[in-house]
Specification:
This protein is of the alpha/beta class. The protein has helices spanning 22-29, 38-55, 72-80, 90-98, 115-124, 134-147, 186-196, 217-237, 263-281, 294-297, 331-335, 424-428; strands spanning 7-9, 15-17, 20-21, 33-37, 60-65, 84-87, 106-108, 128-131, 151-158, 180-181, 200-206, 243-245, 287-290, 301-313, 317-322, 341-343, 353-358, 367-374, 382-386, 407-411, 414-419. The chain is globular and about 70 Å long. The structure holds ligand LLP.
Length: 437
């Protein structure tokens, strides 16, 4: 199996992850079941951190983009591995706090943070607020004045770079809801305004050009644009920026069609470019931040399902129904994203069929994969979807009043529940029948 996943096949022909036989996991925890491998998560975090230490002399910080998979346990792991955290909502901020994450290493993103969220962030002693608009800047400044505190901020910049990825996860171009643009000078307006606010200290520029990007070129181009902005700010307005946050977006190999990225090589190349261009502009090299999310957790996770009916519609399609679907993994429904499927209980069975994996929801678009290779699958088989660690649990929902599956963290043959599964009572917990009904 792929070298970048901590999985193998045992003598029973079962898929093993983190030393745990997946068939045994299903016996103990049922299906659907999210399984996250602790070793892979830590290893991915170390790849980024070590590359930074090696190629940028440690003058940087890797922030784990918690939106990819946000629970208290993963926040704890990120802290133990020396990473900072990117949060994008009051809920993610609260999760970090609950996990005891040091708030000075938390960066707060989002294009429409509410005054309440901004206030909570200030009260928590957050490291940086990544301000997205002039409106947010004024709201934040008023809050700071009320509280008698100062905020150190970054500004989210749209560098005007388009990378090759799905439209829904592109964010760096001028026509994006995130941030202020470079092309029309919004960034300079923003910076001049920030300079006038006594309680605001603008220390950083931030950008994020999109997600699931494989080419190095857009990242390199982004660095060039951002450093030019830094140089212009200094030259035109005397505004010295000391931090450059380059966002996340590093692609992940979901199927054999995707390339495998050596993240360390990317970090080396980006670091070299930063140093070179800073030299050319006569700028001091900034403190660099990066925010990988998917690259940290995607290949650490698998999801296990039990196969239900298999409908072989002659000359049309073979549907394989599983006991989950878009409620635990909405990514096919949203982006037609591709995954690798295996039969966890019969790993050596030849993949000689083309099937469509369908969820159990009342929705024809509720698929996990269309026309994917799989072995001759039967009801009762255990289907594993690989690389589901990112944007699966975190994007799960209760459609059709389906409880979210539990998440177990596996390591050295031991499985620990890090998120309890939701039962029927959890589903009706917030329902109220008014007294006069
Ligand atoms: N930083 C910022 C400001 C972001 O907006 C994101 C992702 C990241 C970092 C992390 O990006 P990553 O390294 O994970 O690509 N739900 C979509 C992905 C949306 C990404 C949103 N922002 C999916 O399932 O593909």
């Amino acid at each position: 199996m792929a070298e970048n996943r901590n999985i193998y096949v045992n003598e029973k022909d079962h898929l093993v992850i983190g030393g745990c036989d997946s068939v045994e996991l299903v016996k103990e925890f049922g299906t659907p079941l999210y399984v996250m491998d602790e070793y892979t998560i830590r290893n991915n975090m170390r790849i980024f951190k070590n590359a930074f230490d090696e190629f940028y002399e440690g003058k940087g910080l890797v922030l784990y983009a918690s939106k990819a998979f946000c629970t208290t346990a993963i926040c704890r792991i990120a802290h133990q591995e020396g990473l900072g955290l990117d949060v994008v909502s009051g809920g993610e901020l609260y999760t970090a706090k609950k996990a005891g994450f040091p708030m000075e290493k938390v960066y707060f993103h989002g294009n429409n943070k509410s005054p309440k969220e901004l206030s909570e962030a200030l009260d928590s002693g957050i490291g940086r607020i990544v301000v997205d608009s002039v409106h947010e800047l004024t709201v934040l400044n008023s809050l700071c004045q009320e509280k008698g505190v100062n905020a150190r901020i970054s500004v989210r910049v749209k560098p005007g770079i388009e990378a090759h990825t799905h439209d829904y996860i592109l964010t760096g171009q001028i026509d994006s809801k995130f941030g202020v643009a470079v092309e029309n000078g919004e960034i300079f307006e923003f910076a001049r305004m920030a300079k006038c606010f006594e309680n605001i200290e603008l220390v950083g520029l931030h950008c994020h050009i999109g997600s699931q990007i494989f080419e190095l070129e857009p990242f390199e181009k982004t660095v060039q644009v951002m450093l030019k902005v830094m140089a212009d700010l200094k030259e035109r307005y005397g505004i010295v920026i000391t931090e450059l946050n380059l966002g996340g977006g590093y692609g992940v190999q979901y199927t054999e069609e995707d390339d495998y990225i050596h993240y360390a090589k990317y970090i080396k190349s980006v670091s070299d470019t930063v140093k070179k261009i800073c030299g050319e502009y006569g700028l001091e090299t900034p403190f660099i931040l990066m925010e990988p999310g998917r690259a940290i957790v995607a290949n650490a996770g698998i999801t296990l399902y039990t196969v239900g009916p298999v409908k072989d519609i002659k000359n049309v399609r073979k549907y394989v129904a599983i006991d989950g679907g878009m409620s635990d993994n909405p990514r096919y429904a949203l982006y037609e994203s591709k995954y690798t499927f295996v039969l966890a209980n019969r790993m050596s069975a030849p993949k000689d069929q083309i099937v469509t994996v369908a969820g159990k929801h009342c929705e024809s678009g509720d698929l996990l994969g269309k026309d994917v290779p799989l072995a001759d699958v039967k009801p009762g088989d255990i289907l594993a979807v690989l690389d589901t660690g990112a944007y699966n649990y975190s994007m799960s929902m209760n459609y059709n009043r389906t409880g979210r599956p539990p998440v177990v963290l596996v390591k050295d043959g031991k499985a620990r529940v890090i998120v309890k599964g939701e039962d029927y009572e959890d589903i009706v917990r917030n329902d109220i029948i008014p007294e006069d009904l």
